[in-house]
Amino acid sequence: PPGAEPAGICLACSYECHGTHRLFELYTKRNFRCDCGNSKFKNLQCKLLPEKGKVNSGNKYNDNFYGLYCTCKRPYPDPEDEIPDEMIQCIVCEDWFHGRHLGAVPPESGDFHEMVCQACMKRCHFLWAYASQLAVPPLTKANSLEDEGIVLKVEESEEQKKEIKKESGVEHHNTKEEKQSEQFNEPSTSSGSACPEVVTKSEEPLCKLKELQSKPFVKKDTATFWPSNWRSKLCTCEDCLKMYSELEVQFLTDECDTVLAYENKGTSDQETERRDPLMDTLNSMNRVQQVELICEYNDLKTELTDYLRRFADEGTVVKREDIQHFFEEFQSRKRRRTNRMQYYCS
């Protein structure tokens, strides 16, 4: 209620424990524990897991938990907003943004998989070095020279230009394969070097980020849009991992952290739940075992149905002792059949 602390609950508890409450659906929230039944609710106990801690100190609550989204801090759907617009979730802060409030026109929804908002790009400014090669360019109505970043070359000193030319002096002799490997931020493995793995002692371990930062790139006050596999291209050297940890964005290198991976896992779990345990068991057996199991299953089904029908006809309640008695009799009959079985050799 107004004036109270915000709380977040899982999807299961929203169905089981909060059917009459006003809820905001926030979709996914990273590193978050369900608050249902803890100290934030005075007279409510969780029906699914009553034994809970009083508070989840690791949870973070942004404006979404008050029903407000985007930089405009408006509800969704907004009764006062007549402009049709799509809401896109930032993968870093996990807030939701109107497409028109990202500083750039988003590409078509099928052209990108993830978005990093303006504020998170300022905080994680290292991503701009990757954006020049990996990000999906936003839609633009009329690009100026400044928007394209061409002015960056004017800002470079003559010494920087010479240094860049010196570093790329062999560029004219590179093959297409070498250029492609450079594009994906990987060291070249072409035949131009007899032993590409040999390095001098003075050289530092290869850092993809430093390699990209040594080249001209542009920073803009906009959100960025990324393809499906861009996380695998991020550097994982010791210095970069330390930087991710300090910025609390270690999840960026985890491809299982994506919403697509999350949805695929849910689909896979549902398919597992829908599988018939009997069919799974049958598939693990040979032909003879399959036939024997099916026969035993059909015998059990027939005898149990006949046994329970008597109770239905008489209108009596089936008790636990009745079921135990049935299975004792069933096992006894099964042993007698097995003992009388005759085997013939041809």
TrEMBL record:
One Gene Ontology MF term: ubiquitin protein ligase activity
Region (Disordered): 156-197
Alphabetical list of InterPro entries matching this protein: UBR7 (IPR040204), UBR7-like_UBR-box (IPR047506), Znf_FYVE_PHD (IPR011011), Znf_RING/FYVE/PHD (IPR013083), Znf_UBR (IPR003126)
Top-tier EC class: transferase
Reactions mediated catalytically: S-ubiquitinyl-[E2 ubiquitin-conjugating enzyme]-L-cysteine + [acceptor protein]-L-lysine = [E2 ubiquitin-conjugating enzyme]-L-cysteine + N(6)-ubiquitinyl-[acceptor protein]-L-lysine
Polar residues composition-biased segments: 182-193
One Pfam family in the UniProt entry: zf-UBR
Record pathway: Protein modification; protein ubiquitination
UBR-type domain segment(s): 1-50
Role this protein plays: E3 ubiquitin-protein ligase which is a component of the N-end rule pathway. Recognizes and binds to proteins bearing specific N-terminal residues that are destabilizing according to the N-end rule, leading to their ubiquitination and subsequent degradation.
Protein name as annotated: Putative E3 ubiquitin-protein ligase UBR7
Organism: Cyanistes caeruleus (Eurasian blue tit)
Lineage per the UniProt record: Eukaryota, Metazoa, Chordata, Craniata, Vertebrata
This protein's encoding gene: UBR7
